[in-house]
Write a structure and sequence with these properties.
Strand order of the largest sheet: 2-3-1-4-8
Shape: globular
Radius of gyration: 18 Å
Structural class: alpha/beta
Oligomer: single chain
Order of helices and strands: EHEHHHEHEHEEEHEH
CATH class: Alpha Beta
Strand content: 15-25%
Number of strands: 8
CATH topology: Rossmann fold
CATH superfamily: P-loop containing nucleotide triphosphate hydrolases
CATH architecture: 3-Layer(aba) Sandwich
Number of helices: 8
Length: 222
């Protein structure tokens, strides 16, 4: 058990495995896995004022403003579930959001202890994402090479047809990567300047990558 809160930011391109590693860190260190996507969906499902405001932007296909996301983060960070710390999955995405997170944590006398950058070459990311197939019925995810279904095009879990999500098509992936690289370079510098950045080789099995993640965290906290 940690003696003080641990706050870990996961950085990396689409398909790098941030969500998976964030969950594993949360379980291993007994902290909260905080995904802004899940946070938004939770507020919408509960019908809160923040959820209703967010849903209006989402229905128009617009990004939820940083100020509104910040209010949700503020509320969650001040909850008992976040008292031991958090792993931040999908946030921050730019330096403005990083500055906002710093301010929210400072109110709790906390800071981002380590920013883990999962570095995966674009060619590997294209192979990962373009080969992904999802079940529209139950949400199960497969991969045509690494985790194929027992029957091609059919979900093992529920028997529904598997589809390639529009954002997993190669042209869309390349554009997502272009936007990511444009936004992330300043964010990597932001955390490097604070001595919090640790780069992790994100190529390999989930266990291999997690082993590197743990070593990077140990080196930061010594």
């Amino acid at each position: 058990m940690l003696t003080r809160a641990l706050d870990v930011v996961l950085l990396g391109p689409p398909g790098a495995g941030k969500g998976t590693q964030a969950k594993r860190i949360a379980a291993a260190f007994e902290v909260l896995h905080l995904s802004t996507g899940d946070l938004l969906r939770d507020e919408v499902a509960r019908g809160s004022d923040m959820g209703k405001a967010s849903e209006a932007f989402m229905k128009r296909g617009e990004l939820v403003p940083d100020e509104l996301v910040g209010k949700m983060l503020f509320a969650r960070l001040h909850s008992q579930s976040a008292a031991a710390g958090c792993t931040y999955d999908g946030y921050p995405r730019n330096t403005e959001q990083a500055i906002l997170l710093d301010g929210l944590l400072a109110e709790l006398n906390r800071r981002v202890d380590v920013a883990l950058y999962l570095n995966v070459p674009d060619a590997d990311l294209l192979a990962r994402l373009a080969g992904r197939r999802s079940c529209a019925a139950c949400g199960a995810v497969f991969h045509v090479v690494t985790t194929p279904p027992k029957v091609e095009g059919v979900c093992d879990a529920c028997g529904a047809a598997l589809v390639q999500r529009p954002d997993d098509e190669e042209g869309v992936i390349r554009e997502r990567l272009r936007v990511y690289h444009a936004q992330t370079a300043p964010l990597l510098k932001f955390y490097a300047d604070r001595g919090a950045l640790r780069e992790v080789d994100g190529v390999g099995t989930l266990d291999e990558v997690f082993g590197r993640v743990r070593e990077a965290m140990r080196s930061k906290r010594r």
